[in-house]
């Protein structure tokens, strides 16, 4: 497996980053996960835009987006696979053992893993912890992901594949690695970015392609929604057949199934929409 590090391709087994890299010691970094279909990245321009936004938000030096694009193409060419997940990681770089950044500049790492097509529907749970809709990291795709790791582990314990958070004022927000949509009286709604959720790329495409509305929603909307679905780079559009103890028989329901179809048709036509 070849990865991109320090400006070029390297063997994964021998590639090295400093043990004092701030991505490792303090979670000072940002990332993107990009789907790759037969070696071609999906929506790469949107991912690069978000990477640049996350870097600005974290006060990291602006990433060289031409290099990141070149790195993605090089890693994909070097590791042929049918369905892959490119992982772009960009950290504060090698620095002192504290929270101040050092002078050694950022680390850019691009790696590739295999991915699989997700089932059409899945189970989710809600967790008692909240997303902060007004934090310094809100809306940034940072490598400070441990809260998501804990919540996902809680979901797995309950036979679910995703955990959903409310924000600090009790509104439905997002999953550990996905955005959430609900269907009420035939209309699709998703929490606005102001709820504290990540501006998901799949979310944006789904809103554009289905006409979903951005609506403040209480967490308990999950107890009465006719349908619930998730969006993310690796799930695309995925129905939900259980929320906590509530079954949603027949998921994906008709509105979700239509959203899945629209997404598949539109996304299939354009790998960089
Ligand atoms: N929310 C969080 C916290 C995420 O980590 C992700 C993706 O990993 C998403 C939402 C979905 O975003 P995207 O559609 O860009 O993959």
From TrEMBL:
<keyword id="KW-0289">Folate biosynthesis</keyword>
<dbReference type="InterPro" id="IPR036038">
    <property type="entry name" value="Aminotransferase-like"/>
</dbReference>
<dbReference type="InterPro" id="IPR018300">
    <property type="entry name" value="Aminotrans_IV_CS"/>
</dbReference>
<dbReference type="InterPro" id="IPR001544">
    <property type="entry name" value="Aminotrans_IV"/>
</dbReference>
<dbReference type="InterPro" id="IPR017824">
    <property type="entry name" value="Aminodeoxychorismate_lyase_IV"/>
</dbReference>
<comment type="subunit">
    <text>Homodimer.</text>
</comment>
<dbReference type="Pfam" id="PF01063">
    <property type="entry name" value="Aminotran_4"/>
</dbReference>
<protein>
    <recommendedName>
        <fullName>aminodeoxychorismate lyase</fullName>
        <ecNumber>4.1.3.38</ecNumber>
    </recommendedName>
</protein>
<dbReference type="InterPro" id="IPR050571">
    <property type="entry name" value="Class-IV_PLP-Dep_Aminotrnsfr"/>
</dbReference>
<keyword id="KW-0456">Lyase</keyword>
<comment type="similarity">
    <text>Belongs to the class-IV pyridoxal-phosphate-dependent aminotransferase family.</text>
</comment>
<dbReference type="InterPro" id="IPR043132">
    <property type="entry name" value="BCAT-like_C"/>
</dbReference>
<comment type="pathway">
    <text>Cofactor biosynthesis; tetrahydrofolate biosynthesis; 4-aminobenzoate from chorismate: step 2/2.</text>
</comment>
<dbReference type="GO" id="GO:0016829">
    <property type="term" value="F:lyase activity"/>
</dbReference>
<keyword id="KW-0663">Pyridoxal phosphate</keyword>
<dbReference type="InterPro" id="IPR043131">
    <property type="entry name" value="BCAT-like_N"/>
</dbReference>
């Amino acid at each position: 497996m070849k990865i991109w590090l320090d400006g070029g391709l390297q063997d994964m087994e021998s590639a090295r980053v400093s043990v004092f890299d701030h991505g490792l010691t303090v979670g000072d970094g940002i990332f993107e996960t990009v789907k790759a279909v037969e070696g071609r990245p999906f929506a790469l321009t949107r991912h690069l835009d978000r990477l640049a936004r996350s870097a600005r938000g974290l006060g990291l030096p602006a990433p060289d987006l031409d290099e990141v694009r070149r790195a993605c193409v090089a890693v994909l060419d070097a590791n042929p696979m049918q369905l892959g997940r490119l992982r772009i990681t960009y950290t504060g770089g090698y620095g002192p053992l504290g929270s101040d950044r050092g002078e050694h500049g950022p680390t850019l790492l691009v790696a590739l893993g295999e991915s699989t097509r997700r089932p059409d529907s899945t189970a989710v749970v809600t967790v008692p912890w909240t997303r902060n809709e007004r934090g310094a990291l809100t809306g940034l795709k940072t490598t400070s992901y441990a809260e998501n790791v804990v919540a996902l582990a809680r979901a797995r314990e309950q036979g679910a594949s995703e955990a959903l958070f409310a924000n600090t004022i009790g509104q439905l927000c997002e999953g550990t690695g996905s955005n959430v949509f609900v269907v009420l009286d035939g209309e699709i709604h998703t929490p606005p970015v102001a709820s504290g959720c990540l501006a998901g790329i799949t979310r944006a495409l789904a809103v554009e392609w289905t006409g979903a509305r951005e609506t403040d929603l209480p967490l308990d909307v999950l107890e009465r929604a006719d349908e619930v679905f998730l969006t993310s780079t690796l799930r695309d559009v995925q129905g939900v057949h259980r929320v906590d103890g509530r079954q949603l028989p027949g998921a994906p329901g008709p509105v979700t199934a239509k959203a899945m179809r629209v997404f598949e048709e539109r996304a299939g036509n354009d790998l960089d929409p």
